[in-house]
User: Fold this.
Amino acid sequence: SDSVNIAIDGPAGAGKSTVAKLVSEELGFLYIDTGAMYRALTLAALREAVNMNSESELSQLLSKCHIQLVVNEEGASVLLNDEDVSKDIRSLEVNQNVSLVSSWEAVRVEMVERQRQLAQKTHSVLDGRDIGTYVLPNAQLKVFLTASVSERARRRHEEQLKKGMPSDYEQLKIDIARRDELDSTRAFAPLKKAEDAIEIDTTTLSISQVAQAITDLAKERT
Ligand code: C5P
Assistant:
C-alpha cells in the first residue's frame, strides 16, 4: 500500500501514547493505539469471566469483539461493541491481566491482522510492543522509546491523577516491572527493539522534545 506508517514501540509508560498522539496530530496522521485493543479484549474477558489461560476461549471471545479506535476533539477513545470503554480499560484489573491475554498467539494473530488493515488504509502512527518487529516490518520510521522504571511509573501516576482516577505509585512500579518482564519474555512477538529502530531514552526529555524529534525524523524520511 502507499500509506506512510510510523512505528513507536517500547515498554509500558515510556510515553508512547502521548508522543504518538502529538506526532499524529502534527503530521495529520491517524493514531492507532494497539495497546488499547489488547486492553479492550482483556476487559471483555474480565466482564464475561472468560478463562484467560485458555487461548481458544479468548480467541473466540475476540471474534465477537468489535473494537474501534475513535479520535475526536475530546481525544482518543476506545469503543468495545459500541460502548465507550476508554476509562475502564485503564483499570488496575486490566493492567494486571493484559499481558497474559496478549501473550497468546491466536489473539495476537487476529489483532495484528486488524492493525495491518487499519494501517494500510491511511497514513498512521502506531504505538505498541511489536509494531516495528512484527506488525509493520516495512514501516518508514521505527522508534523505540525507553525510560527508567521509576520515571515511567511516575508518569503513569501523574497521568492517572490528572484523569481523576485512583493511583498508587508503588503499585504502578510493580505492575510496570512485571509487564516489562512478561512482554519481553513471551514466546510470540515479544517486546524488542527492531534492528532498524531509532532508540530514544526519554528519562530526561520532555514530551514535546521527544515528539519534535520524531516529527523531524518523519519529515526527513517521507
Ligand atoms: O501500551 P499499553 O501499556 O496500553 O499496552 C498494554 C499491554 O498490551 C502491554 O503491556 C502488552 O502486554 C500488550 N500489548 C502488546 N502488543 C502491543 C500493544 C500492547 O502485547 N502491540
About this structure: The chain has a mean pLDDT of 95.
